[in-house]
Structures are given as structure tokens and as C-alpha cells.
Design goal:
seven-stranded parallel β-sheet; alpha/beta; Rossmann fold; 2 domains; six-stranded parallel β-sheet; globular; 15 helices; binds uridine-5'-diphosphate; binds uridine-diphosphate-N-acetylglucosamine
């Protein structure tokens, strides 16, 4: 009998990171039957990604409401995913990451005693309000999971520390690196994209994204004011800022930045256009999890506008820095990279520490072995190993602590 697996998606990053796993499951169609459940936590932003990866949901649960609260969203996801599980009777459900979709779907499966396999397990900031509510979502999924796909050794160690048995953990590499490798040609021209109107001159491009709930309000405002300062002080840069659909983010960003010279606000970009923008950018300022993991593939320095990250590997490799959200810190840290070539060169060296492009193969192989009751889930020599660290020339105090907390800039 084939292994019947429900793959759950609800938000943009889940589609981007699970599409490659779904493709691999389909490639092994003699062993697996895949049912795709789209909770609809995001509508436009997820549908954009689903079209690109040609994923058609078998169930579309349509839970999104404008400006939804976490409680109402959670309730709707638990309820509707339970129904989808009852109808499909899967052997296992696959959830990804730390969203409400992932947490509430795992809960629905747990109530029905269906095993949960968790992709991107074990990331921890160790601060339950940063990122909020994702840190707790991800921990709760771990409590309910039967198989834990930890992207890196650090994530595995976090799970071991919490008492997860080692035989239930597989170190896979983050599947977003597989996605980047699988992409078709990126657009060479931006003419028919939302970036079409941006003048092509010699300006250096600063890519900005932000959406975290813990930054809504004052922190989001100071990020915007820092961007204004930067374009005023540096006539040779353009800021390109695809603004998240969340109305709490959009209202602050548009009221403070719309119409500012050399700051280009756009709607969310389709993934190919976004990645091509990343590739052409000089520098990235973000609070996004996925963008932190993607930028090292293109050796783009990332300044992480958060107090703490659950993804400290790029900082430990010297390719990213956690800078907090204060206006002064954002300006001064960005200026170090804009003004100092050595600083810039030091942060743009090294291999992506999050994955090697084979995460989805490892995940699917481990599920197949689990279904056949084989052990170990994956031979240890087949697990993802970190690439060598780039040679650090920088001063020691610039490195982030292993915990992923900002050093100089934990001030915000
Ligand atoms: C969610 C995830 C976050 C993830 C992010 C990815 C939770 C708690 N948060 O945050 O972990 O990093 O997605 O982007 O799961 N909206 C639209 N159209 C869309 C998407 C959103 O209009 O396509 C608007 C709606 O008004 C919606 C609001 O954005 O109510 C917030 O969406 P929600 O999924 O609740 O949280 P995010 O802040 O997007
Ligand atoms: N992304 C995109 N278009 C955009 C902004 C981001 O396709 O306009 C992609 C980005 O490449 C990354 C993912 O969306 O893969 C990150 O999503 P988001 O920042 O919304 O969520 P997070 O990763 O923080 O959970």
C-alpha cells in the first residue's frame, strides 16, 4: 500500500519551501500518494507562489479574513484541517515551519492521532515573544511530531536539548536552497514586472522586507525613518521595498514612505522577480526568516532588523548581522557596508550554511523509510553537513553569539 500523505500549506513561505518536497514525493509516485491541503491563511501571496510551482490544492479551506486575529485563525484552521484529514485518512501529515497553519494543522492531526512530520524543525530563538507567535508555534509542533526534519545540526541540538529522541530527527538542509537551485531562468528584464518603473542607473539597490508582528508600530516606524535617512545621506542608493499584504504593515509603510525619492514601494513580488531582485541587490535589510536563508546563496550581506534570530547560522558565518530595530543602529550598520569595501567584502563570502539543495530528497527518503519501519530514518553520512566557515578577517566583537542575539545592536 502506498503511503498517503497530506502536505499542508497556508502561507507564502510554506509554498516556497514545500513545493520541492511535493515534487519529490510525486517523482516517487509508486510509493506515495500526496493530498495537498491549502488552508488559505494567505490568499494572494500564496496563490502567487502556488501558480509558479504548479501546485493545485485538493482541498482549499479558505480561512483567510481581512486583518484576522490569531485565535480566530487558529480555530478555523483546526476545524477545517480536521475535516480534510477525516476525508483523506492519511498515514502522515507534513507541516512546514512555524505559522498558524503549521501549528493548528499539527494540532488537528494530533487530535485524530495521525503522525505529524515537521519540516524545518528545531529552530529556536529561546524568546517566546520574538518572533511572535512563531517561536511558540514551532515548539508546540515539535511536541506533537513523530518525525523532525531539522535543517541544520544546530536545530537538531535544540531538539535534543528538549528531549526529542535522536532517532526521530533527520538533519536535511533547508529546502529553500533546493527551491533556489530548481528555479527556471530568472527574469533578465524587469519590464513587465512591478519593478519595471525603477530607473536603471548606477544606484546600488537596497532590498527591504518586513512584516513581523513584534515590530508593528514603533519598531516598524523606526525602520521606515532609517530608510529615509539612508536615501537622504546616500544619493547613490535606491531602496526597493515589496510591502507585505498585512494591513498593519502596509499602513505604516505607505504613510511614512510613499512618494519618497529613491524609495520604491511595490506590492508583494512573484517569487522569480523577487529572487532576481535579490540577485541584483547590493544589500538586504529584512526581518523575514526565508530571506535570511536565501541571501547567502547569492552572497548578499543581510542586516536582520530583529532583536534575535532563530536562524543564527548566517551570522555565525559572518554573512549576516542581527542589528535590532532602532533607527540609529539601522543607519549606522547599513552605512558600514555602504561606505567600507572591506566590511562589505567580508560579509559577502562563503557558502550558504542553511542547505545544499538536497533537503527534499532526504525528507522523502526518510518518510519512505519511516513508513517501511526501517531504522535509522537516514544514514548519518547522508545528512546535511555545514560547509566550511569563511575565513573571518573581522574583529571578534562583530560576531553574533551562538544564541543568535544581537551583540552591539541588541539595544533596540
Ligand atoms: C504569517 C505568519 C508568519 C509568516 C508570514 C509569511 C502566522 C502567525 N504568521 O504572518 O509566520 O512569516 O505569514 O508571510 O502564521 N493578507 C492578505 N493577503 C495575503 C496575505 C495576507 O490580504 O495574501 C492580509 C490579511 O488581511 C490577513 C493579514 O494579511 O488577515 C495577516 O495575515 P496572517 O496570515 O494572519 O499573518 P502574517 O502577518 O501574514
Ligand atoms: N518573497 C516573495 N516576494 C516578496 C517578498 C518575499 O516571493 O515580495 C519570498 C522570499 O523570497 C522568501 C519568502 O517570500 O522565500 C519569505 O516570506 P515571508 O518574508 O513572508 O515569510 P517568513 O520567511 O518570514 O516566514
Amino acid at each position: 500500500m502506498k503511503c498517503r500523505i497530506i502536505a499542508i500549506l497556508g502561507t507564502r513561505p510554506e509554498a516556497i519551501k514545500l513545493a520541492v518536497v511535493i515534487q519529490e514525493l510525486r517523482r516517487r509516485s509508486e510509493e506515495f500518494e500526496v493530498v495537498i491541503v491549502h488552508t488559505g491563511q494567505h490568499r494572494t501571496m500564496l496563490d502567487q507562489a502556488m501558480q509558479l510551482f504548479k501546485i493545485k490544492p485538493d482541498f482549499d479551506l479558505d480561512v483567510m479574513r481581512p486583518n484576522q486575529t490569531l485565535s480566530s485563525l487558529t480555530g478555523r484552521v483546526v476545524d477545517t484541517v480536521e475535516n480534510a484529514c477525516r476525508r483523506s485518512e492519511p498515514h502522515v501529515i507534513l507541516v512546514q515551519g512555524d505559522t498558524t497553519t503549521a501549528f493548528a494543522s499539527a494540532l488537528a492531526a494530533y487530535y485524530l492521532q495521525i503522525p505529524v512530520a515537521h519540516v524545518e524543525a528545531g529552530l529556536r530563538s529561546k524568546d517566546i515573544y520574538n518572533p511572535f507567535p512563531e517561536e511558540v508555534n514551532r515548539r508546540l509542533v515539535a511536541v506533537m511530531s513523530e518525525i523532525h526534519f531539522a535543517p541544520t545540526a544546530l536545530a537538531r541540538d535544540n531538539l535534543l536539548e528538549e528531549g526529542v529522541p535522536s532517532q526521530k530527527i533527520v538533519v536535511t538542509g533547508n529546502t529553500v536552497v533546493d527551491t533556489l537551485r530548481a528555479l527556471a531562468d530568472l527574469p533578465r528584464s524587469w519590464q513587465n514586472t512591478p519593478l519595471g518603473g525603477i530607473p536603471s542607473d548606477d544606484c546600488r539597490l537596497v532590498l527591504v522586507t518586513s512584516h513581523r508582528r513584534e515590530s508593528w508600530g514603533a519598531a516598524q516606524e523606526s525602520m521606515c525613518l532609517a530608510l529615509k535617512d539612508l536615501v537622504e545621506r546616500h544619493p547613490d542608493i535606491r531602496v526597493i521595498y515589496p510591502v507585505h499584504m498585512n494591513p498593519n504593515v502596509r499602513s505604516t509603510v505607505t504613510s511614512l514612505l510613499a512618494g519618497t525619492e529613491r524609495i520604491h514601494l511595490t506590492d508583494p513580488l512573484d517569487y522569480l522577480t523577487f529572487v532576481s531582485l535579490l540577485q541584483r541587490s547590493f544589500l538586504v535589510l529584512t526581518d523575514s526568516g526565508g530571506v535570511q536563508e536565501e541571501a547567502p546563496t547569492f552572497r548578499k550581506p543581510v542586516l536582520v532588523m530583529r532583536k534575535v534570530t532563530e536562524r543564527p547560522e548566517a551570522s555565525q558565518f559572518g554573512m549576516a548581522k542581527i542589528i535590532g530595530t532602532s533607527r540609529d543602529d539601522i543607519v549606522s550598520e547599513a552605512e558600514r557596508l555602504l561606505n567600507d569595501r572591506e566590511e562589505y567584502r567580508d560579509m559577502s563570502e562563503g557558502e550558504n550554511p542553511y542547505g545544499d539543495g538536497h533537503g527534499s530528497e532526504r525528507i522523502v527518503e526518510a518518510i519512505a523509510r519511516w513508513y517501511q519501519k526501517k531504522t535509522p530514518l537516514l544514514e548519518p553520512d547522508k545528512e546535511f553537513k555545514l560547509p566550511p566557515k569563511p575565513h573571518p578577517r573581522r574583529r571578534k566583537d562583530d560576531f553574533v553569539e551562538a544564541s543568535g542575539k544581537a551583540t552591539a545592536a541588541g539595544k533596540s
